[in-house]
């Protein structure tokens, strides 16, 4: 009897190879190849006969034709609605990822309770916890009276049969890695199972006009586990960020077909679950000291919302001869660029000193406008001189040392004025007489260094 053909599938990228190897040729990861028997994709067996019996027909419409805007389903949590682009779109599929214990299940249970109280049909399917565990969490959060329907099931066929019979408005699958189909020989959580089950659930969402929310595990690198094709199939991908030791949680949209992809929602973890933070700037600046060398307030933008945060830097003598560079909340490659500009263009001697950089509050900054604030914090610590306590800093630094203008300067300055700041160090283009606060425009990073040296009396 001939042996059945098998493939070795990478659990990191989904690439298939005919034989086992220690390293995946597609993504370069080690020890990720798992033997799986090839199976036909779900849904192909039942529909093959129908395709042969009738001719295929493609319904075409005009590009200029109009269709009514779908009414969004309000979650009752304004920060979540902001990240989703104004609410949940019926018939959409959303993937939510985050570290274990960061609050994914808590937030989704709070959301489902709010939606169920608005007379919408909400079903919560848990594949990792028993029903009693979900009930205990609901009682702890004060949500036991919400009419949310619970189920503990991992079989894809049973889940789809139940959803088709109940016809819900929204359903949560917690998590997609626990769901399995008996049409595949692979184990639950493998690439084949995750891809096939996600595809069937997304198809159900489109056909039934039901909003489906999938919870995904994350790898040690912070990426959602499983093949990247799952992120391509869904309409929105939301990441939960933050350290479990901090009370702040940030929900960030990295993909959204129905709204902006750079919005964030800020939450605070407490005894009663996750509470919304309507003014994140005041939260990130809470407990900030006064005249402290090495601290700079950065006026940044997260989507359409201006957010002020504190960037802290410490420049210290190298203990073992080799300088260290430690970064939390910012790109280490960008830090190396800023340090090179300060060394080569501004004459700041920091090459042989340890440099530690931290964004307070657990916020992760990706905006290039933070270059000037990082440079100000580093030079402030190196010269042991404090920046003005009533000032904010923002601007992008080029390799030539020039400070380039950034967008939305008016929103940044208005947010700073609202929180009591009276001055700003910003690109020269932002120095406008109509600005709500005083703007000290700098054209190059050298001007910033000279200003701080004058303050230090050098």
Automatic annotation (TrEMBL):
<dbReference type="InterPro" id="IPR041166">
    <property type="entry name" value="Rubredoxin_2"/>
</dbReference>
<keyword id="KW-0479">Metal-binding</keyword>
<feature type="domain" description="RecA family profile 1">
    <location>
        <begin position="69"/>
        <end position="218"/>
    </location>
</feature>
<dbReference type="InterPro" id="IPR020568">
    <property type="entry name" value="Ribosomal_Su5_D2-typ_SF"/>
</dbReference>
<dbReference type="GO" id="GO:0005524">
    <property type="term" value="F:ATP binding"/>
</dbReference>
<protein>
    <recommendedName>
        <fullName>DNA repair protein RadA</fullName>
    </recommendedName>
</protein>
<keyword id="KW-0863">Zinc-finger</keyword>
<keyword id="KW-0234">DNA repair</keyword>
<feature type="binding site">
    <location>
        <begin position="98"/>
        <end position="105"/>
    </location>
    <ligand>
        <name>ATP</name>
    </ligand>
</feature>
<dbReference type="InterPro" id="IPR014721">
    <property type="entry name" value="Ribsml_uS5_D2-typ_fold_subgr"/>
</dbReference>
<dbReference type="GO" id="GO:0000725">
    <property type="term" value="P:recombinational repair"/>
</dbReference>
<dbReference type="InterPro" id="IPR004504">
    <property type="entry name" value="DNA_repair_RadA"/>
</dbReference>
<dbReference type="GO" id="GO:0005829">
    <property type="term" value="C:cytosol"/>
</dbReference>
<dbReference type="InterPro" id="IPR003593">
    <property type="entry name" value="AAA+_ATPase"/>
</dbReference>
<keyword id="KW-0067">ATP-binding</keyword>
<keyword id="KW-0547">Nucleotide-binding</keyword>
<keyword id="KW-0378">Hydrolase</keyword>
<dbReference type="Pfam" id="PF18073">
    <property type="entry name" value="Zn_ribbon_LapB"/>
</dbReference>
<comment type="function">
    <text>Plays a role in repairing double-strand DNA breaks, probably involving stabilizing or processing branched DNA or blocked replication forks.</text>
</comment>
<dbReference type="InterPro" id="IPR027417">
    <property type="entry name" value="P-loop_NTPase"/>
</dbReference>
<dbReference type="GO" id="GO:0003684">
    <property type="term" value="F:damaged DNA binding"/>
</dbReference>
<keyword id="KW-0238">DNA-binding</keyword>
<keyword id="KW-0346">Stress response</keyword>
<dbReference type="GO" id="GO:0008270">
    <property type="term" value="F:zinc ion binding"/>
</dbReference>
<dbReference type="GO" id="GO:0016787">
    <property type="term" value="F:hydrolase activity"/>
</dbReference>
<comment type="similarity">
    <text>Belongs to the RecA family. RadA subfamily.</text>
</comment>
<dbReference type="InterPro" id="IPR020588">
    <property type="entry name" value="RecA_ATP-bd"/>
</dbReference>
<keyword id="KW-0862">Zinc</keyword>
<dbReference type="Pfam" id="PF13541">
    <property type="entry name" value="ChlI"/>
</dbReference>
<keyword id="KW-0227">DNA damage</keyword>
<feature type="region of interest" description="Lon-protease-like">
    <location>
        <begin position="354"/>
        <end position="458"/>
    </location>
</feature>
<dbReference type="GO" id="GO:0140664">
    <property type="term" value="F:ATP-dependent DNA damage sensor activity"/>
</dbReference>
<comment type="function">
    <text>DNA-dependent ATPase involved in processing of recombination intermediates, plays a role in repairing DNA breaks. Stimulates the branch migration of RecA-mediated strand transfer reactions, allowing the 3' invading strand to extend heteroduplex DNA faster. Binds ssDNA in the presence of ADP but not other nucleotides, has ATPase activity that is stimulated by ssDNA and various branched DNA structures, but inhibited by SSB. Does not have RecA's homology-searching function.</text>
</comment>
<dbReference type="Pfam" id="PF13481">
    <property type="entry name" value="AAA_25"/>
</dbReference>
<feature type="short sequence motif" description="RadA KNRFG motif">
    <location>
        <begin position="255"/>
        <end position="259"/>
    </location>
</feature>
């Amino acid at each position: 009897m001939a042996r059945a053909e098998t493939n070795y599938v990478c659990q990191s990228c989904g690439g298939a190879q005919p034989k086992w190897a220690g390293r995946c040729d597609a993504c370069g990861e080690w020890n990720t190849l798992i033997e799986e028997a090839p199976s036909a994709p779900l849904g192909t067996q039942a529909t093959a006969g129908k395709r042969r019996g009738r001719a295929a027909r493609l319904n075409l419409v005009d590009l200029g034709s109009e269709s009514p805007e779908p009414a969004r389903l309000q979650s009752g949590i304004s920060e979540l609605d902001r990240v989703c682009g104004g609410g949940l779109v019926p018939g959409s599929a959303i993937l939510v990822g985050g570290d274990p214990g960061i609050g994914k299940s808590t937030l989704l249970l709070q959301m489902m309770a709010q939606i169920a109280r608005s007379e919408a049909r909400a079903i919560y399917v848990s594949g990792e916890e028993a029903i009693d565990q979900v009930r205990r969490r609901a009682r702890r959060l004060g949500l036991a009276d919400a009419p949310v329907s619970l189920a503990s099931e991992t079989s894809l066929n049973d889940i789809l049969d139940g959803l088709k019979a109940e016809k819900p408005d929204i359903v949560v699958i917690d998590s997609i890695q626990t769901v399995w189909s008996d049409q595949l020989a692979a184990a639950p959580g493998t690439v084949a199972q995750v891809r096939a089950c996600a595809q069937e659930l997304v198809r159900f969402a489109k056909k039934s006009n039901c909003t489906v929310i999938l919870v995904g595990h994350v790898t040690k690198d912070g990426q959602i586990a499983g093949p990247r094709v799952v992120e391509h199939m869904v309409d929105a991908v939301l990441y939960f960020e933050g350290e479990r030791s901090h009370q702040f949680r940030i929900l960030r949209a990295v993909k959204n077909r129905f709204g902006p992809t750079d919005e964030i929602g800020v939450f605070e973890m407490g005894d009663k679950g996750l509470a919304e933070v309507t003014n994140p700037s005041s939260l990130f600046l809470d407990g900030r000291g006064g005249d402290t060398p090495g601290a700079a307030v950065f006026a940044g933008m997260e989507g359409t919302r201006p957010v002020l945060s504190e960037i802290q830097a410490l420049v210290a003598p190298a203990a073992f001869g080799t300088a260290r560079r430690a970064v939390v909340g910012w790109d280490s490659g960008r830090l190396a660029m800023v340090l090179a500009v300060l060394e080569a263009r501004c004459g700041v001697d920091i090459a042989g000193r340890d440099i530690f950089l931290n964004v307070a509050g657990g916020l992760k900054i990706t905006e290039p406008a933070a270059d000037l604030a990082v440079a100000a914090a580093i030079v402030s610590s190196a010269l042991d001189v404090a920046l003005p306590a009533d000032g904010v800093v923002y601007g992008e630094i080029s390799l030539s040392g020039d400070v380039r203008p950034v967008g939305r300067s008016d929103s940044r300055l208005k947010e700073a004025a609202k929180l009591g700041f009276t001055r700003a160090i910003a690109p020269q283009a932002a120095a406008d007489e109509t600005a709500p606060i005083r703007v000290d425009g700098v054209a190059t990073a050298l001007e910033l260094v000279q200003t701080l040296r004058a303050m230090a009396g050098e």
